[in-house]
């Protein structure tokens, strides 16, 4: 059991089918019960049962399957600004310098008003682009200097709103659902060195970049066979890997080993913490 009593660690990433979660129950019997216990402040390598992976249609559906002491690290922005400033909310500007050539993976989060400017379901590509234009106009009017919304950021607005709505309605979740970022996580697990190879090249998964990250995850306790399995239907291979590294960040948070950027975290106007943990 971890220092805060959490038994289940969960790493989550958004995917086409909803959310992919890699999870592990620390309360299960260890695979090597006769081994010498590791330093409790270190990332657990075989902390219980083998990890599992599942797909959930919504973040609420995922949370509903978990015990109340589960700890979740998710690759999704948490906590939204009323005014978006250059570089993002604060966490983004702090972690980008750590990542070298990988820093473009951290994009600025627009204002809350921009996130909620267009919430209808899109039935046509034309409607999707029209909604993107509306969100960009609102973003420009609520940012300093004025800045629109990238297509990449707009593509995850619905998922950001999912988590945002849950944390507003259920404040008790704020102490066990934490924002992280895969490339920041890989960097921290790699002794502060950013990954040397990109995970994607021109939108396609890079086998060499994936192999580099899998090797690092194996050094932190994953079995290669688990990482090499095909991702569940509705998730891409990089979604699976990102959820896997998020689970290691959940372990670091539970053990008191993770660091928030900034430290201490900021808070949005609803009191939701604003920080990237790694």
Account of the protein in words:
It is a single chain. With 278 residues, the protein is α/β, with parallel strands linked by helices. The protein is 33% helix and 18% strand. The protein has 10 helices and 11 strands. The chain has helices at 59-64, 91-95, 112-115, 125-141, 151-154, 157-169, 182-189, 207-219, 224-228, 237-254, and strands at residues 8-15, 18-25, 52-56, 71-75, 84-85, 143-144, 177-179, 200-201, 204-205, 260-267, 273-277. The strands form 4 sheets. Strands 3-2-1-4-7 form a 5-stranded mixed β-sheet. The protein has a two-stranded parallel ribbon with strand order 5-6. Helix 8 (207-219) packs parallel to helix 10 (237-254). It starts with 7 loop residues before the first strand and ends with a strand. The model is unreliable at 1-6 and 28-47 (pLDDT under 50).
Brief characterization of the structure:
By secondary structure, the chain is of the alpha/beta class. It has helices spanning 59-64, 91-95, 112-115, 125-141, 151-154, 157-169, 182-189, 207-219, 224-228, 237-254; strands at residues 8-15, 18-25, 52-56, 71-75, 84-85, 143-144, 177-179, 200-201, 204-205, 260-267, 273-277. The chain has a five-stranded mixed beta sheet.
């Amino acid at each position: 059991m971890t220092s805060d009593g959490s038994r289940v660690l969960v790493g989550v990433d958004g995917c086409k089918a909803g959310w992919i979660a890699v999870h592990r129950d620390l309360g299960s019997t260890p695979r090597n019960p006769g081994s010498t216990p590791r330093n409790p402040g270190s990332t657990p390598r075989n902390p219980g049962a083998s990890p599992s992976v599942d797909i959930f249609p919504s973040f609420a559906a995922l949370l509903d399957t978990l015990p109340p002491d589960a700890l979740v690290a998710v690759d999704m922005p948490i906590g939204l600004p009323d005014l978006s400033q250059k570089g993002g909310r604060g966490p983004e500007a702090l972690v980008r310098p750590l990542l070298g050539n990988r820093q473009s993976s951290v994009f600025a989060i627009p204002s809350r008003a921009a996130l909620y400017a267009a919430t209808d379901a899109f039935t046509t590509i034309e409607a999707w682009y029209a909604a993107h234009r509306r969100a960009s106009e609102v973003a420009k009017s609520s940012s300093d200097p004025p800045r629109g919304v990238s297509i990449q950021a707009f593509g995850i607005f619905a998922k950001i709103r999912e988590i945002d709505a849950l944390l507003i309605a259920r404040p008790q979740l704020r102490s066990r659902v934490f924002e992280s970022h895969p490339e920041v996580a890989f960097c921290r697990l790699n002794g502060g060195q950013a990954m040397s190879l990109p995970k994607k090249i021109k939108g396609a998964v890079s086998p060499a970049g994936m192999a580099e990250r899998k090797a690092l995850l194996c050094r932190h306790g994953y079995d290669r066979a688990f990482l090499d399995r095909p991702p569940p239907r509705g998730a891409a291979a990089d979604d699976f890997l990102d959820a896997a590294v998020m689970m290691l960040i959940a372990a670091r948070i539970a053990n008191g080993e993770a660091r928030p950027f900034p430290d201490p975290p900021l808070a949005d106007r609803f009191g939701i913490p604003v920080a990237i943990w790694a």
